[in-house]
Amino acid sequence: MRCEEVRELLPAYVDPDLHVAGPVEIHLAGCDACSADLAAYRGLLAALYELRELGEEPGAGFLESTLARIEPPTAAARILGSVNDRRVRLALASIGTVAIGAAAVAIMLRRRHATRLAAAG
Amino acid sequence: MADDAVTRELLAACRRGDPRAIETLVRLTQRRVYNLALRIVGDRYEAEDVAQEAYLRMFRGLAGFREEARFETWMHRIVTNTAINHLRRRGRFGELLVDETRDVPVPDRAEGLAASRDALERGLAVLPPGQRVVIVLKDVYGLSHKEIGEELGIEEGAVKVRLHRARKRLREVLEEGDPDEM
């Protein structure tokens, strides 16, 4: 591949999701100029990622006015929220497993009792 | 705000309606929420409205949020969706579909714009809106191509094309601003 072709692909190549492997990698291994170009794109992406932590603060009073608008959750939302809590789900699953086990044992004992009664009768 | 700053315990307390937990969550996330809104709608007052609306949606939806998902990604998605709906209501959504390179002024080299935050912000500002929103959502806030396509109502392939153009154009803008950087 020629440098012009490779450089045209670099804005996508730099993104792991859009990685175009093969001939580009071979070219980059032997071309310092295109490798430097790729490094510049990587630097750009790193700098862009850091922007998420930066930026200006919202205006004075934003926090207070936001909090004033937030409504408390309804009872139904609290229950749904609890069910979506991973630990609560785990606890419910454990209780369910124990309940199924207990039911299975109860059925077994009942059948055994019925068999004994039939044999005695 | 690191994602781990928003703990499972904090989210659970917010679901119960604990006012202190709700305040903590807003304090931890407000800068990011506001700046994402600002980078999409481009106006400080409108960005505050969008951010507040996004918080209302977040706290309403928190009960249904599955903790297997990352809170940060979920939050970014809600803010993006709220900001785009805001532009739609105001008849400004078309701005986000503009994907052509305009003849726009490049930041003045004399102002010392390098790969600093200001240079990046100003570089982003001169991109066509359709490219800017894609690069902001993907490279700053980490939404996937699919998520961006869904929010903007465009194909995933179109998202990739815009992203490609946006990165290329942004590098050109930054290099024209200061050839010693990038």
The rounded distance between the terminal residues' Cα atoms of chain B is: 26 Å
The radius of gyration computed from the alpha-carbon positions of chain A, rounded to a whole number of angstroms, is 32 Å
Q: What number is the mean pLDDT of chain B?
A: 82
Low-confidence stretches of chain B: 103-114
What's the helical proportion of residues of chain B?
Answer: 55-70%
Element-by-element helix/strand order of chain B:
HHHHHHHH
**CATH-level-4 superfamily name of the largest domain in chain B:** RNA polymerase sigma factor, region 2, helix turn helix motif
Largest interface: A-B, 42 and 56 residues
**Global geometry of chain B:** elongated
Beta-strand share of residues of chain A: under 5%
Helix content of chain A: over 70%
Characteristic key phrases:
heterodimer; A: 121 residues; 6 helices; B: 182 residues; Arc Repressor Mutant, subunit A; 65% helix; elongated
Report on the architecture of this protein.
The complex is a heterodimer of chains A (121) and B (182). Chain A is built from 6 helices and no strands. Chain A folds into 2 domains: 3-53, no CATH class; 73-120. Chain A is mainly alpha-helical. By secondary structure, chain B is mostly helical. Chain B folds into 2 domains: 3-91, RNA polymerase sigma factor, region 2, helix turn helix motif (Rna Polymerase Sigma Factor, Chain: A, Orthogonal Bundle), CATH 1.10.1740.10; 96-177, Arc Repressor Mutant, subunit A (Orthogonal Bundle). Chain B has helices spanning 8-15, 19-41, 44-61, 71-89, 117-125, 129-140, 145-152, 156-177. The two termini of chain B are 26 Å apart. Residues 103-114 of chain B have low confidence and may be disordered.
Short note summarizing the structure:
The complex is a heterodimer of chains A (121) and B (182). Chain A has 121 residues and is mainly alpha-helical. Chain A contains 6 helices and no strands.
